[in-house]
Design goal:
Elements: H1 3-19, H2 22-27, E1 33-34, E2 43-48, H3 51-73, E3 78-83, H4 125-136, E4 145-149, H5 155-168, E5 173-177, H6 178-190, H7 194-202, E6 206-210, H8 219-234, E7 238-243, H9 255-261, E8 265-269, H10 274-287, H11 294-303, H12 308-325, H13 331-346, H14 351-362, H15 366-369, H16 376-392, H17 397-403, H18 409-425, H19 427-441
Parallel strand pairs: 2-3, 4-7, 4-8, 5-6, 6-7
Antiparallel strand pairs: 1-2
Helix pairs in contact: 1-3, 4-5, 10-11, 10-12, 11-13, 14-16, 16-18, 17-18, 18-19
Amino acid sequence: MDKKISNISELIIKELEKRIKPIEFKRYIKQLKYNESLSNIHSAVFEAPNALIANWAQAKYAELIATLFEMKTNIKPAILFRISDDEVLLTSFLEGSKAPKISTIGSPLNPLYTFENFIVGGSNEFAYRAAIMASKKPGIVYNPLFIHGGVGLGKTHLMHAVGNVLKDHGKDVIYTSVENFLNDFSRYLRIGEMEQFKNKYRKCDLLLIDDVQFLSGKVKVQEEFFHTFEALKNENRQIIITSDQHPKKIAGIEKRLISRFEWGLVADIQPPELDTKLEIIKKKCEINRVSFSNDIIQYIATIIENNTREIEGIITKLNAYSQLMGIEVDLEFARSVMKNQIEEKKTEITIDSILEMVAKELNVKQSEMRSNNRTVPVVQARRIAIYLSRTLTPNSMPQLASYFGLKDHTAVSHTMKKIKAMIETDDDFKLKIHEMINKVSNI
């Protein structure tokens, strides 16, 4: 790895510090160490002191770190984390200085997302078996495989599991979100290198596309995705797609694309039943090298509704509190830590609640903020609502663009920059924003 990239990695960590919560940076990111010898222009490897931090960083910040690298170098590397002195989290292509065989556009495959680590229950067995078959006979059966279900139920896990199997067999695998696909499309279109874009996505053995619902309303990108789909399908190359809902229920998607999504097999994943949740928690504890008693595991299973990602977050939180405070995790301690989370869920901030508060504070109609009204008061109210929604809710920029009726996510990005600039230069405006944050937090 040349010195220039190494220095850039230091700049990226500093930039990351500006973008995330100080407590998260201190607990997790600050403990990461860049491994120059294992990294190259195509991949950046960071070492973590334990699996918990490695898994947490991989799941939450790999995409952001990759994007920051791309902003500095014009190359988006795979971002992987390993446990110090342990190769378990490294994929085989990182050995030596060779460029990776696997294409990693968007996010790299998570090596921990395997079929062996996937907990099977009645809620997900059909999708699991379909993914197994797709990994054994790629491009032949269930092509495309369309998996749909709610957030955190295992769709991405199954995609990565298929990808890891084919990667181990020397196949060229691309995993990307629709947002990354859109960003790539826009960038290559802008620089006039669409042939290079096509070569990226149409020459792989397996294309994994996450969150295809965000293609909604993107006519030009849908056109390109359609031709990418056709090219891969005609060559019997496997396609796996995920969405939060059945293809027929996705609004703003061309009928010909919906038809092709249903060509192979559509499989859904339902929220896990209690027994499956218990097994998921036990497996997550095992992977993260955390030991909890059965009563704590049962308590977590009854508190968490459906989201398996939230389960991992709880395990991370309990373990972090225990380590930082030097307290053994027992049931009373778990209840104390999770009490705040339960209360937070009761007063969960939504875009609707933000819109309601902004409308009341600035004396504009909620419907106007979601329309194309360009009068100054409405535009300002809309910008503030978008800024608060992006800051206080987990919604992505494409989701916010769709909600507010904007052309695409770049409009949200522009709004965020504008409001941040106003906060930095106008103390009265900054005070008003803080007041509004407090009000919506206490609704």
